[in-house]
Amino acid sequence: MSVWRSILGFVVVVVIGHFVWPISEMLGEHAVVGWINHQIAERYGIVDPSQEQVIDFIVSWVGPALAVLIAYLIFRIGVWWGWRQSKSDSPTMIAVASEPKPNTTNPTKAPEADVNWRPIYRAIEHIGERIGDTNTADCLPDARLALRKAAHEKRIALQGRKEMPGSNGFRNRNSYSKVHTDIDSGYWSNSKINAYATSPDFQEDYHTEPETGLAWGPKGWDEKNHYANMRVNWADIIREWPINSLV
Questions:
Q1: Which of 18, 44, 112, 144 lies 20 to 30 Å (CA to CA) from residue 24?
Q2: What is the pLDDT of residues 152-182, one digit of tens each?
């Protein structure tokens, strides 16, 4: 709006400069004409100036003002044009929903939602194929041992439903927690993965047992130390036994 006001002021000055004399001729003595005559009389000692002398005075008085106004207009137009260019060149801002922040408190362990947990029998089958364990009669013993060693060395993550205190024996499926929890690597120093873990039909049953009769304590197998329904971090399995590798 300020640019347009400046232009309008310029037009008004030009109109006055060009038409003040004809208007004064039509209207008679005018306050503006009287002021002009007074200024000419004081400056040049001319009491009754001619039309040409009045126009020369107006040009001499208005000319510098017009020069300043034109310079001001050029400056303002340049500022306005630069503003238009900056608006057109600036990228459009688009609102983007914030993404969830990665887990930085424990970078060695992925957040639970990012872990691809799969039943343990899938891991045993996969490892058996990779290491050439075809002993299905004994439920892939080499693959089970390889999985146990990897868990003990903290190369893979295993979870299971832990046997609860005061439960009705490890063979009862209701004796185990309703939630999966991490199995500590130290657990595998005297525990092994049993044959039930290799079958999709027995995933709700107990999958671990003591390596020897009293490895868990004086109660032997009746120590509340079994895990059922075990599962593995599949990314760990693929890293340790890549799909295209054979031992």
A1: 44
A2: 999 999 999 999 998 889 999 999 999 999 9
Q: Which of 124, 154, 151, 156 is nearest to 140 (CA)?
A: 124
Residue, of 60 and 142, whose pLDDT is higher: 142
Amino acid at the residue 2? S
Burial class (CB in 10 A: 0-12, 13-18, 19+), 173: middle
Chain centroid to CA 55: how far? 70
Residue 124: enclosing H or E segment and its boundaries?
helix 120-131
Q: Evaluate whether 144 touches 135 at the Cβ level (below 8 Å).
A: no
Find the angle CA(165)-CA(148)-CA(136) to the nearest 5 degrees.
105
Specify which residues 210 forms β-bridges with.
Answer: 191
- Tokens 């008679």: give the residue: 28
DSSP label of 62:
H
Q: Which of 161, 166, 167 is nearest to 205 (CA)?
A: 161
**Is the Cα dihedral 208, 210, 213, 216 positive or negative?**
negative
The residues with which 163 forms a beta bridge, in sequence order, are 176
Please give the model's pTM, rounded to 2 decimal places: 0.54
The enclosing H or E element of 43 equals helix 31-44
Q: In what order do the strands lie in the sheet with 181-182?
A: 117-119, 227-233, 158-162, 181-182
Q: Tell me the one-letter amino acid at 102.
A: P
Q: Alpha-carbon distance 208 to 187, whole Å?
A: 10
Distances (CA, A) of 88 to 84, 156, 198: 6, 55, 66
